Amino acid sequence: MVGANSSNGRILEVAFDPPGSTELNSAASSRVGLQSLVFRDDGAAGVHLLAADSKRGPVFFYSGAADQGAIVLDTAALRESHH
What we know:
The chain has one domain. It contains 1 helix and 7 strands, in the order E-E-E-E-E-E-E-H. It has one helix at residues 75-81; strands spanning 2-4, 11-16, 19-23, 34-41, 47-53, 58-62, 70-74. The strands form 2 sheets. A 4-stranded antiparallel sheet has the order 4-5-6-7. The protein has a 3-stranded antiparallel sheet with strand order 1-2-3, with no helix packed on it. The chain is globular.
Protein backbone atom coordinates (compact mmCIF):
# COMPACT_ATOMS: atom_id res chain seq x y z
CA MET A 1 0.00 0.00 0.00
CA VAL A 2 1.23 3.51 -0.80
CA GLY A 3 -0.11 6.72 0.68
CA ALA A 4 0.55 10.45 0.49
CA ASN A 5 0.73 12.56 3.63
CA SER A 6 -0.56 16.01 2.73
CA SER A 7 0.72 17.59 5.95
CA ASN A 8 4.41 16.78 5.43
CA GLY A 9 4.69 15.89 1.72
CA ARG A 10 5.84 12.34 2.25
CA ILE A 11 4.90 9.47 -0.02
CA LEU A 12 5.12 6.27 2.01
CA GLU A 13 5.04 2.62 1.05
CA VAL A 14 3.41 0.84 3.99
CA ALA A 15 4.13 -2.81 4.85
CA PHE A 16 2.17 -4.93 7.28
CA ASP A 17 4.32 -8.07 7.62
CA PRO A 18 6.69 -7.04 9.05
CA PRO A 19 5.08 -3.69 9.96
CA GLY A 20 6.84 -0.55 8.78
CA SER A 21 7.05 2.10 6.12
CA THR A 22 9.54 3.38 3.55
CA GLU A 23 9.61 6.96 2.29
CA LEU A 24 9.57 6.94 -1.52
CA ASN A 25 10.18 10.62 -2.29
CA SER A 26 13.40 12.34 -1.25
CA ALA A 27 12.07 15.91 -1.65
CA ALA A 28 9.15 15.69 0.76
CA SER A 29 9.91 19.05 2.37
CA SER A 30 9.12 20.89 -0.88
CA ARG A 31 5.70 19.23 -1.25
CA VAL A 32 2.93 20.94 0.74
CA GLY A 33 -0.37 19.44 -0.36
CA LEU A 34 0.00 16.01 -1.92
CA GLN A 35 -3.48 14.87 -2.77
CA SER A 36 -3.52 12.32 -5.59
CA LEU A 37 -1.27 9.42 -6.55
CA VAL A 38 -1.36 7.48 -9.80
CA PHE A 39 0.87 4.54 -10.70
CA ARG A 40 1.92 3.78 -14.27
CA ASP A 41 3.21 0.29 -15.06
CA ASP A 42 5.57 0.35 -18.03
CA GLY A 43 6.26 -3.37 -17.93
CA ALA A 44 9.99 -4.04 -18.17
CA ALA A 45 10.70 -0.30 -17.71
CA GLY A 46 9.19 -0.48 -14.21
CA VAL A 47 6.45 1.16 -12.23
CA HIS A 48 6.36 4.95 -12.08
CA LEU A 49 4.39 7.36 -9.90
CA LEU A 50 2.57 10.62 -10.59
CA ALA A 51 1.72 12.82 -7.58
CA ALA A 52 -0.31 16.04 -7.52
CA ASP A 53 0.44 18.85 -5.07
CA SER A 54 -2.92 20.58 -4.68
CA LYS A 55 -1.58 23.60 -2.79
CA ARG A 56 1.39 24.57 -4.99
CA GLY A 57 0.02 23.25 -8.28
CA PRO A 58 2.60 20.93 -9.84
CA VAL A 59 2.21 17.31 -10.82
CA PHE A 60 5.41 15.31 -10.24
CA PHE A 61 6.66 12.23 -12.10
CA TYR A 62 8.72 9.78 -10.04
CA SER A 63 10.66 7.39 -12.27
CA GLY A 64 10.75 4.03 -10.54
CA ALA A 65 8.21 5.42 -8.02
CA ALA A 66 11.01 7.01 -5.96
CA ASP A 67 13.56 9.83 -5.68
CA GLN A 68 12.95 13.58 -6.14
CA GLY A 69 10.41 13.69 -8.94
CA ALA A 70 10.29 15.93 -11.99
CA ILE A 71 7.54 18.46 -12.66
CA VAL A 72 5.46 17.34 -15.66
CA LEU A 73 2.61 19.84 -15.24
CA ASP A 74 2.45 23.05 -13.24
CA THR A 75 -1.12 24.24 -12.78
CA ALA A 76 0.07 27.31 -10.83
CA ALA A 77 1.91 28.50 -13.95
CA LEU A 78 -1.21 27.85 -16.03
CA ARG A 79 -3.36 29.91 -13.62
CA GLU A 80 -0.87 32.81 -13.71
CA SER A 81 -0.79 32.88 -17.51
CA HIS A 82 -4.57 33.44 -17.63
CA HIS A 83 -4.50 36.63 -15.48
